[in-house]
Design brief:
The complex is a heterodimer.
Chain A lengths: L2 H60 L2 H20 L5 H35 L9 H85 L13 H99 L7 H32 L4 E5 H14 L6 E6 L4 E5 H18 L5 E12 L2 E8 L31 H12 L3 E6 L3 E9 L5
Parallel strand pairs in A: 2-4
Antiparallel strand pairs in A: 1-3, 4-5, 5-7, 6-7
Chain B lengths: L7 E4 L3 H13 L6 E4 L2 H8 L15 E4 L8 H10 L8 E5 L4 H9 L4 E4 L4 H18 L8
The chains are: A alpha+beta, B alpha/beta.
Chain lengths: 527, 148
């Protein structure tokens, strides 16, 4: 049971004991009171009887009325206490009854005495002495002495009763005292026992709790307090144990988490390490790339200046060849035979061809080397310019329908882009010369990703898509010079120029249906 | 006052080109008037009447046809010299070169060249260009006849 219950129980028991003791005390008090009352009464009786005796002896000596009155008074007053007295004990009650009877007798005798006295007094009118009426006197004396005896009896009885009363009171009181004593002792014993039990319980429990708590405080979360008994201390123990459990759990959880975190940290460090390695690798790659880019750029430059100087230096001997062949031609060639003249012709034409190739190569190279002079201009207007110039040199039979769309304003090198348009449009014109009416469109697709796409479309001879990769190659041609003149540098130039502007070039075509050539230009907004 | 025939100074290192040029001049009957010098140094010696040309009458040519790529002293250096010398400045100088190098063109005009002509490869055009030049500068054009 719980301590509280025990406590309550103890209190209840003690309460009961005290109630009992209280009862006993009350009871003993009552006994004392009773005895005291009885004592008083008995003493009263004794006193009255004593006074009566005095009065009686006074009367017997002097036969005063006053004495007689006193005697009467005393006898009367005796009645009351005698009536009030009562005894539990049978013997005492018998004595009391005899006393009452005695009193009754005494009263009776007194009445007789009083009668005699009054008769005497009435008769004689003087105090009774033996001289006056011996007989009467004798009677009175008789009565007086009987009364005296009654008195004595009463007193003796009263004393006897007093004694026994006191004795029984003593006995009873002793009994109650003993009870009270026992009660005190018992409750003391109980209390001691309880205190002993409690304190022992407390001491051991607190000892156990203290040790347990100390262990927990020291960090040993695995120990548990073993305390049994169904009371609050056990609950406390249980709570402490649970606390210890929780602490243990949370510590384990924390340890796990720390472990986890450590692992995460480690893997993070590893990843960091990895990242740094990659960064370093990327940097190395980057610098390699940069180096390669520089090398490539240098190689390009070298290539270009090589190309240029080669073309440049080739022109002089070429000029000499054509020149001297021509001069030879102008001389009198009648001496030469047909074959010789034919040879001369071939040499001449070859030289001419060579020179135009070199010129194209030179201009192509120049396109790659020269500074770009960017400006913002209207592509549509440029297109019309180019068309105007182109059509000037055309024979009037060439019927061409021009469809020019909404071309945007662009930023770029005007001269270079002019060349692009010249190449594309002249190609369109050239390769549609077999059509009755050539239809040439120049238009732009909607802006996408910040650049515009322009196309030149014709309905001429077209090309087979399987050769599409060759189109933009330098000196690459899909037709012989007899079919269509040209060196195959136009589209290469277009690609080079558009490339320098940051755009792309491509083409679509279908044999005998036509071809479309596209290029993109990044639209740089007004600077 | 002796009026000298107008001379054309041809400064050209390549003999073939020189021959072609002569042929072209011949068409316009200017061949006799062409003096051929092989490089820039000779040209300067001639103009200043020094070196091999000491004792020459100090008469400026009516036209200088200047090639650019030459040994010793190249065409642009000769041009600079001519155009910075008050005595020679007035001589018309035409650069006659193998190819149209943008930087050469700009430099030439900055230094005051009178014309910049690229030698055509096609002979017919070559004849036409050169002889036109000669006809214009040496015949049509009025130039001061300075006696140095």
């Amino acid at each position: 049971m719980t301590i509280k219950t025990q406590q309550r129980l103890l209190l209840a028991v003690i309460g009961i004991i005290f109630c009992m003791m209280f009862g006993l005390v009350v009871q003993s008090n009552r006994i004392t009171e009773k005895h005291q009352a009885r004592g008083l009464l008995l003493n009263e009786i004794i006193k009255q009887v004593f006074d009566f005796s005095i009065a009686a002896s006074d009367y017997s000596m002097y036969h005063h009325d006053r004495a007689l009155e006193q005697m009467e008074l005393r006898i009367t007053t005796l009645a009351r206490p005698l009536e009030q007295l009562e005894f539990g004990h049978a013997d005492s009650q018998a004595v009391l009854e005899s006393m009452q009877q005695e009193l009754e007798r005494a009263r009776h005798i007194f009445k007789q005495l009083k009668e005699s006295h009054n008769t005497f007094k009435a008769k004689y009118g003087v105090d009774i002495t033996e001289k006056t009426d011996v007989f009467a006197h004798q009677a009175i004396e008789n009565f007086s002495s009987k009364l005296s005896i009654s008195a004595v009896t009463l007193v003796t009885n009263a004393q006897y009763l007093l004694k026994t009363s006191t004795e029984s009171q003593m006995k009873e009181l002793r009994f109650y005292d003993r009870q009270v004593m026992t009660g005190i002792v018992v409750s003391f014993a109980l209390l001691s026992l309880a205190v002993f039990i409690f304190s022992r319980r407390f001491v051991t429990s607190i000892e156990a709790l203290k040790d347990g708590a100390a262990r927990i405080a020291c960090g040993d979360l695995t120990s548990r307090i073993g305390l049994s008994g169904g009371d609050e201390l056990t609950d406390l123990t249980r709570s402490l144990n649970e606390m210890s459990d929780r602490l243990q759990e949370s510590r384990e959880a924390l340890e796990d988490e720390i472990e986890e975190r450590k692992r995460t940290e480690e893997s993070l460090l590893e990843s960091e390490q990895q990242l740094r390695e990659w960064e370093a690798a990327v940097q190395r790659l980057n610098s390699k790339l940069e180096n390669q880019v520089i090398k490539l750029q240098e190689a390009n430059k070298e290539m270009e200046s090589f190309t240029y100087s080669v073309s440049h230096d080739l022109r002089a001997p070429l000029r000499h060849v054509t020149g001297f062949v021509e001069m030879l031609n102008r001389r009198d060639t009648s001496g030469l035979d047909e074959k010789s003249r034919h040879y001369l012709t071939v040499i001449s034409e070859a030289a001419t061809k060579m020179s135009s190739l070199i010129d194209d190569l030179l201009s192509f190279s120049r396109m790659g080397r020269s500074e770009m002079m960017k400006s913002h201009f209207d592509l549509k207007q440029l297109t019309w310019d180019v068309i105007g110039e182109m059509t000037k040199g055309l024979p009037p039979e060439r019927g061409i329908e021009w469809r020019i769309g909404d071309l945007p304003e662009v930023t770029g090198d005007r001269a270079m882009l002019r060349l692009v348009l010249v190449n594309l449009i002249s190609n369109a014109v050239k390769y549609s010369n077999k059509a009755e009416t050539a239809l040439i469109e120049v238009d732009a697709l909607p802006e996408e990703n910040g650049s515009t796409t322009v196309y030149v479309r014709d309905n001429g001879t077209g090309f087979d898509m399987k050769y599409v990769d060759k189109l933009f190659g330098l000196f690459q041609r899909l037709h012989s010079t007899e079919e269509y003149e040209g060196t195959g540098v136009g589209l290469a130039n277009v690609r080079r120029i558009i490339g320098r502007h940051g755009g792309r070039t491509w083409a679509e075509g279908e044999l005998h249906k036509g071809a479309t050539f596209y290029f993109t230009l990044p639209l740089i907004k007004e600077t | 006052m002796v009026v000298e025939l107008k001379k054309i100074l041809l400064v050209e290192d390549n003999p073939n080109d020189a021959e072609l040029t002569m042929e072209a001049m011949h068409e316009k009957n200017l061949a006799n008037e062409v003096i051929w010098l092989k490089d820039g140094q000779e040209a300067l010696d001639f103009l200043y009447c020094e070196g091999a040309y000491q004792g020459r009458d100090r008469i400026n040519p009516a036209l200088v046809l200047l090639d650019i790529k030459m040994p010793r002293v190249d065409g642009l250096q000769v041009l600079k010299k001519i155009k910075s010398d008050p005595n020679l400045r007035t001589i018309p100088v035409v650069i006659l070169t193998s190819s149209r190098e943008e930087s050469d063109l700009l430099q030439g005009y900055e230094d005051g060249v009178n014309a910049f002509v690229v030698k055509p490869v096609v002979f017919g055009d070559f004849i036409h260009s050169v002889s036109s030049l000669g006809a214009f500068w040496a015949v049509l054009n009025e130039a001061p006849a300075i006696r140095i």
